[in-house]
From TrEMBL:
Pfam families: HTH_3. Residues 35-75 form the HTH cro/C1-type domain. One of its GO terms (molecular function) is DNA binding. Coiled coil: none annotated. This is Transcriptional regulator. InterPro entries: Cro/C1-type_HTH, Lambda_DNA-bd_dom_sf. Residues 83-103 are annotated as: Disordered. It comes from Streptomyces agglomeratus. CDD domains: HTH_XRE.
Length: 161
């Protein structure tokens, strides 16, 4: 890692820490200590990171990522430790030879069944979970949920698993 990469990572992590509500600018703000406590790391590790003196070890990176609500993958890539090629995102295409069709994505009904949500709570699960999906993926109607409770093959299989 070059000094420039460390500076870029330090600037990014400082902005992220501030955006998550930690006061790291005032000496008595307590943001560094609070972040260290919540992440379960030494305050000195936070200080060294913010001063651009050192990169956190893998466990500290993992803990900070969790507390700062950012994927560990992003932390590792932005830190320069690994590249996007080292940590590829899952391909949405079926990886079997000759397959070109997109892999099956779970419906909210299948997810509810697979997670063990009681059937009488599926409508609420689908309504809440659907709020986190893009509009096209969340197009679930109550009648589909009711039909799925009756037993599509995928839902039946999910219930068995």
């Amino acid at each position: 890692m070059t000094a420039s990469e460390l500076e870029q990572f330090t600037a990014w992590i400082e902005d992220l820490i501030r955006a998550r509500g930690y006061d790291i600018d005032s000496p008595r703000g307590g943001g560094k200590s609070r972040l260290a406590d919540e992440a379960g790391v030494h305050r000195a590790a936070i200080t060294r990171l913010l001063q651009g003196q050192s990169m956190p070890d893998l466990e500290t990176t993992r803990r900070l990522a969790h507390v700062l609500r950012v994927p560990v993958r992003e932390m590792l890539i932005r830190s320069g430790r690994l590249s996007e090629e080292d940590l590829p995102l899952p391909d949405l295409q079926d990886s079997s030879p000759g397959a070109g069709a997109p892999a099956h994505r779970l419906t909210l009904e299948e997810a509810a069944a697979g997670l063990g949500v009681p059937p009488d709570q599926w409508d609420m699960f689908i309504k809440v979970a659907g709020q986190f999906l893009p509009a096209a993926a969340a197009d679930v109607r109550p009648e589909r949920a009711a039909a799925a409770r009756g037993g599509s093959p995928a839902v039946k299989n999910a219930r068995k698993g």
